[in-house]
Amino acid sequence: MAEKVTIATVARRARVSRQTVSNVLNAPHIVREETRERVREAISALGYRANQAARQMRTGRSRLIAVRIEPTRDGVNGSVLDRFLHGLTEAAEAAGYRVMLYTAPDSRSEIGAYDSLLGAYDLDAFVLTGTEHDDARAAWLTERNVPFVTFGRPWDDPAQTRSLGRAAVPSPHPWVDVNGADGVAQATRRLLDTGHRRIGFVGWPTGSGVGDDRRSGWADTLRSAGLDPTGLDRAAPDGFAQGEAAARDLLAGAEPPTAIVCASDSLALGALQAVPGPGDSAAGSDHRSPVAVTGFDDTPVAQAIGLTSVSQPLAQAAACCVDLLADVLDGGRRGGPVGSRRSDPAAGGPGQVLLRPSLVVRQSG
After folding, report:
1. Architecture of domain 1-46
2. What is the DSSP letter of 333?
3. Where are the stretches annotated Disordered (predicted)?
4. Calpha distance 131→111 (Å, rounded)
5. Which helix (H) or strand (E) holds 44?
């Protein structure tokens, strides 16, 4: 009969102590990377399987985190969350965690899912995506002392919220976000640098924290260049048809823009349908040069058709989320990795990471 593989067996093969093997399994962040890799190679070679129930009894932790799969939309921008979830799963595995996925059609239903999941599973924490004003999900978890991190900033100012008599904003919590205003500002500055002076914007209706943030990057950049953004802004729900309609409305004006920056790749793909090609006429106008179009999210479709777009560091954002959760779950004893990823001084303090996106220039302008 083959010898049973135990922690001691793994320790002998990896030439480390049993405690080191236990640390790799339960708290990998405290073990040097070289040693972690040696232990993991030994685990793989020996086919060792840790007893999860025994580990949970010993540590009081399931090492299981849950995250929602959002409803499918147009097949373009949904890929952004897909890439984030892929990165989250990889980062969680490397840190010794597992990810549970669940569905909910909206935020209200998601809170119901929290209650059900916490009753059925011994979850360590949640990762929330798509933060919004008066985010009841964050408030619900905070009130019940359930650990969580958000991919997205809390958009409400607590003092202002109280003065307006709105629902109380929970105390500051760990979050990771991408600086959308900076990404749109990069796109707008590049268009200014290439000679454009009438730069339009197609974004979501006001009230969305993410959408308003991206719009501000466009408007503030134009104002800084001494240009007035008035009349060059159109709002539309996310989607191809909506983006096309908004862009056509912009281009039908007496002084149409020569470039359009969009809050998403879906809107930008629609805008491309409204843009006249070389030698085409639009809305009864004279022949025009092609209008430059820029999207946001750098989706695979943008890459395939040559759309200039703002790229979010999704893998880095996912890794930061796992780091922040591990900090919370380990009682704040971790250090180093999260601080090294805090790449923008706009982040408010420990546990708040604001990442900078990058502009990918392609044929669309």
Report:
1. Orthogonal Bundle (1.10)
2. -
3. 335-365
4. 13
5. helix 33-46
CA 92 to CA 102: how far, in whole Å?
A: 16
Its CATH architecture, for the domain 64-177+313-356, is 3-Layer(aba) Sandwich (3.40)
Residue 168: name the closest of 136, 190, 124, 199 by CA: 136
Task: State the pLDDT confidence band at 134, using cuts at 50, 70 and 90.
Answer: confident
Same topology, domains 1-46 and 64-177+313-356? Answer is no
Domain ranges of the chain: 1-46, 64-177+313-356, 180-311
pTM above 0.90, yes or no: no
Q: Where are the beta strands (DSSP E) in the chain?
A: 64-69, 98-103, 125-129, 148-151, 175-178, 199-203, 233-235, 259-262, 292-296, 308-311, 352-355, 358-360
Q: pLDDT for 218-258, tens place per residue?
A: 999 999 999 999 999 999 999 999 999 999 999 998 899 99
Task: Dump pLDDT digits (tens) for 302-330.
Answer: 999 999 999 999 999 999 999 999 888 87
Closest CA to 147 of 126, 131, 129: 126
